Amino acid sequence: MKKYLVGIDIGTTGTKSVLFDTEGNTVASSTAEYPMSQPKNGWAEQSPADWWDAVCKTLREITPSAADGEICGIGLSGQMHSLVMLDKENEVIRPAILWCDQRTGEECAEIEAKIGRKRLIEITANPALTGFTASKIMWVKKHEPESFEKCAHILLAKDYIRFKLTGEYATDVSDASGMQLLDVAKRSWSLEICEALGIDMSMLATVYESPELTGRITEEASELTGLPVGACVAGGGGDNASAAIGTGVCKEGKAFTTIGTSGVVFAPTNTPVIDSEGRIHTFCAAVPGTWHVMGVTQAAGLSLNWFRRTVTPDANYRQIDDWCEKIPIGAEGLIYLPYLMGERTPILDPNARGVIFGLSALHTREHMARAVIEGVSYSLYSALELIDRVGVPVNDMSLCGGGAKSGLWRQMLSDVYATDIKIPESGEGAALGAAILGGCAAGIYSSVEEGCERAVRTKTTVLSNNANHEKYMKHYAVYSSLYPALSESFLKLSKI
Fold first, then answer.
1. Please, what are the domains in the chain?
2. Which of 70, 113, 156, 431 is most exposed, with the fewest beta carbons within 10 Å of its own?
3. Catalytic choice (9, 50, 239, 415)
């Protein structure tokens, strides 16, 4: 009898469920979208019921493709940080507050005042950020005390789905790292943090390693999804931790870049390397006993999407690639700072804003398009530089996400990084990583590493051009000088 694995990725715009065989080949895939609500400027919420409906719908569509075998392992991946609160009857109390919600600036300041910024980074490996879960909990506690009083369980997005599938309150170390309640070095909840913030630890889910068995599919869930009763559900991981496994980035020395709405440079490490200034995130990795550092560009693919929508709405991305191929490196003196949504790495400044620098009458929309893609690439390179400076080795780079579909962007990143870049055969990323973790929980793979060896393959390798790298670095030097020159002006602008 054939054996199959399922990866479920609960994203911000939709959920994707994918059926794989044990060699990582996609058998069936289904995606269902759902809305995001913005009740006020800067707020972002979703209904967990929409996630569950999407999971049930997509699973019902893919599970019939396993009629000739057995689905034995399920893994979960999902958007990180998003707050789900359940009452004693396991009913959702209020809409989930998402990772991109920016309402918690005051709460972040209060968290650092209560614990101390230095101590907070020592324990959680990160400064207080509006995206993280702890500040969201504190916001509800302050502004919706009746909701906080009702709260019996605090879960993340994928962990709410786990509860619906198995009846278990569980999370994994990689996702829990982004809550700002975990002692990241010890891989367990921090009593010190929870006591300081007045959060009852009994509300928090049990923490597991990502490939561990956390529960089994219940009869009720089986009827709704088509998954077999008793199938194993693994700890799973946050979206980037799962994507790392799905691209084979499972040990120190390897790394990947992903270009989606945001951009990420992700590198595993055998020890919890912490940046004292909080410019890069340090989280537990999906491989037991390891961690990862992660630099984030807030508006990566978003920058190109913004350019296309506002400047060239009639053009598609392939056409934009063709334009950019005809423009020389450096866009003839045009430089773009991709700070449309503020920035995390390496400047950690919510007040930073996008800039097109060096504009002259010579420049066309084609020059602007090239500058936008180069500016995002420089931002990602600055994250890679910082990862190198904190001592995490990178000698093997992969690329995934929507940007990986662009031949121009693949070559540009390879040249900017001065390193060859691997493109994975599977485009499923986080869903494949989740499925591999599900295979570990089911005993299909003896380890995450074995799962990666069996299920992840390289489609092609982009070779770096050293001459192009030298050209890019001349423009990168100017790019790097712009934020320090503008930072005070960004702050002044934010106060007008």
1. 2-240 (3.30.420.40), 248-428+465-496 (3.30.420.40)
2. 113
3. 239
475-481 average pLDDT score: 98
Measured CA to CA, the distance from residue 476 to residue 379 in angstroms comes to: 9
Distance of CA 236 to the CA centre of its chain: 13
Residue in this structure with the two tokens 């889910």, named with its chain if needed: 205
Place of tokens 């956390």: 214
Q: What is the pLDDT of residue 401?
A: 85
Which of 64-94 are b and which e, b meaning 16 or more Cβ less than 10 Å from the residue's Cβ?
A: eebeeeebbbbbbbbbbbbbbbbeeeeebbb
Q: What are the angstrom distances between the C-alpha of 308 and each of 311, 313, 323, 493?
A: 6, 5, 12, 26
pLDDT given at position 427? 84
Nearest to 404 by CA among 370, 434, 435, 429: 429
The two structure tokens encoding residue 204? 């928090």
Q: Map tokens 């979703």 to a residue.
A: 46
The rounded mean pLDDT for the chain is 96
Which residues share a beta bridge with 73? 5, 232
CB-side exposure of 486: number of CA atoms within 13 Å? 20
Over residues 118-157, the pLDDT tens digits come to 999 999 999 998 889 999 999 999 999 999 999 999 999 9
Which residues, at least 6 apart from 273, have a Cβ–Cβ distance to it below 8 Å? 282, 291, 293, 390, 391, 392
Cβ contact 96:139 at 8 Å: no
Query: What is the residue type of 56?
Result: C
pLDDT value at residue 341: 84
Question: Mean pLDDT throughout 55-71?
Answer: 97
Instruction: Answer yes or no: is pLDDT of 214 > 90.
Output: yes
- For the entire predicted model, the pTM comes to 0.91
Mean of pLDDT values over 276-281: 88
List, as one string, the DSSP characters of 305-342. Answer: HHHHHHT-TT--HHHHHHHHHTSPTTTTT-EEE--BTB
Distance of CA 457 to the CA centre of its chain: 21
Output the DSSP codes for 65-118: GGTTEEEEEEEEEE-SS-BEEE-TT--B-SPEEPTT--TTHHHHHHHHHHH-HH
Residue 239 catalytic? yes
Q: What is the pLDDT of residues 355-395, one digit of tens each?
A: 999 999 999 999 999 999 999 999 999 999 999 999 999 99
